[in-house]
Specification:
The chain is built from six helices and ten strands, in the order E-H-E-E-H-E-H-E-H-E-H-E-H-E-E-E. By secondary structure, it is of the alpha/beta class. It folds into two domains: 122 residues, 3-Layer(aba) Sandwich (Rossmann fold); 77 residues, putative n-type atp pyrophosphatase, domain 2 (Alpha-Beta Complex). Strands 1, 2, 3, 4, 5 and 6 form a six-stranded mixed β-sheet that branches. It is globular and about 45 Å long.
Length: 219
């Protein structure tokens, strides 16, 4: 970690709890932020996986006081477009890309491969740490997040729209789902915390049933 102190970085930022905590740790470790990369689904006009709208992404950027580069892409060209964004970040002075992955090896190798192509150092502040401890650290550090996406085959629908507290996390675990959602059981939107200049206000428009997925549509 010390070898990265003072290095300029971009972070792969989904808007969820893990990417927020990874950004928080990178900042505390003395890395210097240049901005964030958020992948954007051109078919849905939302961020990939966590479903942030354009308006919400703009609010996140303002509150974090960091520019967000939208990596606009279809699924077929996902890795090519992400690499292109990394090349652009490197041309602007980035030396490191920060990721919020915890322990899924395929995800790790994908991120490493993209960074190798672009000539950036991949950095994983959360890697191989206990999932439950990371969830509790996120909450206890003062972050606030709402559950916005559920895989209903693995987690009860009742958790959609709940704020991620210790009590909610414990209830998720008791339901049989992974407490961290690292396997895709649930996704969150982080709207407040120590890295934000102010709490992000967002409207809840509706709850959507998309078959396997239940989605909280926030504006």
């Amino acid at each position: 970690m010390n070898s990265l102190h003072g290095k300029k970085f971009v972070a792969s930022y989904s808007g969820g709890k893990d990417s927020a905590l990874a950004l928080h740790r990178a900042l505390r470790a003395g890395l210097v932020p240049l901005g964030l990369l958020t992948t954007y689904n051109t078919d849905m006009n939302r961020s990939w996986f966590h479903g942030m709208s354009d308006a919400t992404i703009e609010k996140v950027s303002t509150s974090l006081a960091l520019p967000i580069t939208l990596v606009k892409t279809s699924g077929e060209l996902y890795h090519e477009n992400f690499e292109r964004a990394l090349f652009d970040a490197k041309s602007r002075g980035a030396e490191v890309c920060v990721f919020g992955d915890i322990d899924i090896e395929d995800h790790l190798q994908w991120c490493i491969a993209r960074c190798e192509v672009a000539g950036l150092i991949p950095h994983f502040p959360l890697w191989k740490e206990d999932r439950k401890k990371l969830v509790y650290e996120f909450i206890d550090s003062g972050f606030s997040a709402i559950i916005t996406v559920l895989d209903t085959t693995r987690i009860p629908r009742e958790f959609l729209g709940k704020i991620l507290t210790r009590e909610t996390a414990e209830a998720i675990e008791k339901s049989g789902a992974d407490i961290c959602g690292e396997n895709g059981e649930y996704h969150t939107f982080t709207f407040d915390g120590p890295i934000f200049q102010h709490k992000i206000d967002f409207p809840i428009i509706e709850k959507l049933d998309l078959g396997r997925l239940a989605v909280l549509n926030i504006g």
